[in-house]
Amino acid sequence: MRTFMTAALLLSLAATHVLAPIPAFAQDSAKVILDRHERTIKAGDLAGVMADYADNAVLVAPAGIVAGEKNIAGTNVFEGKANIRKFFQVLTTRELPAVKTMVATYEFKTNDTALMHWAQYKGTPKEVSGTDIWVIRGGKIITQVVLVNPPKK
Questions:
Q1: Domains and CATH numbers, the chain
Q2: How does pLDDT run along the chain (153 residues), one tens digit per residue?
Q3: What is the 3-state secondary structure of 4-58?
Q4: Residues with Cβ < 8 Å from 11, sequence gap 6 or more?
């Protein structure tokens, strides 16, 4: 719960800090962006993945994904495309087999905010799952928060 509250606070701060309010795009536009994002990451297309992000986007993820990132309450905060690129360089190279196994469903909360419920290695002992929170404005991802569920015991 604490991780979720921290992520929610960071998401609200990032969403107001990153861009001034822009009229929300239709839900279909966010779905198109997220579908493309999922395809490009599975393909290991780093340039394609990065094309979805605003220059001043913020990504918050569990600590330990990329060495040397600022740790705030057990999370890594990647500010700007150059830092977000570090996160996805890890996922599109070293962790690609896990990403290729990902299955995802989307839950749209508003025209520009969506939850992506995902699982990797679904149904196996290696299964990992979680939820990403997305804020998309002006056709670009401005905020992404990655929440990983605790391992099954």
A1: 2-148 (3.10.450.50)
A2: 444 444 444 444 444 444 334 444 444 578 889 989 989 988 889 999 999 999 999 999 988 766 655 655 667 889 999 999 988 887 777 555 677 788 899 999 988 899 999 998 888 888 889 999 999 998 999 999 999 988 776
A3: HHHHHHHHHHHHHHHCCCCCCCCHHHHHHHHHHHHHHHHCCCHHHHHCCEEEEEE
A4: 60, 133, 135, 143, 145
